Amino acid sequence: MSYRCIHVGIGTGVLAAAASAGVVNPLVPSWRGSANTMYMGWETFTSAYAGANAADMAGSSNLASLFNFGPGAVLTSAPFPTGIYNPTGPLAVMIMGGVTSAPRNPTDVVMNLASAGTGIVNSTVALTLFDNAGNSKRLAPTTTLLRNSVPDGMGGNAVTTAFTWSIDPLVWNCTRWQIDFSSAAPHAILDAVTLDLKLVPTPGALAVLAAFVGGTPRGRRRRDER
Hints:
The chain is mainly beta.
């Protein structure tokens, strides 16, 4: 099936079947599920254009939503797992979210992105951090890792790519974040996304740690030396 006629197959489930692989061989950080982390994942979408898609994978935080702002996109058909497909133009995807117990700064971020058809352009992937005072910082991925690639049956590949960010300390406190990525042409499919964020400890946790260190012999020596 050529990309020019992919949209004909949506009603029969041909496209959906080709895009049903989801995230394959994902990069799972060792710290997933530990304290001061967030996880969310999308594998079933409810809005193809402009509407919010809530994270639906088990264990997901509700502090983020995924949007596509590429007009002309449609959802692939049930009963297969749904994806966002654009037969007439590129996808323009934005994931927007906040942090638990804001303000808190992310230190590490891992995103696994599954796409098919003409696919997502890796160079468009970026993470932007914001605070409530107008500060922002846009970051390209620290690493980009191809995790899986197989023919999708339509002349392209079903691909899972892992993007990671290692973030230097900020002089301001992050309250929200945004991840953007896009395709370059029609016939790209967004199949699934997983996202992990590791955050600095909450101020309360830091205070407890400081009190603990202050109560140790090492902490007492430092006070005595002063």
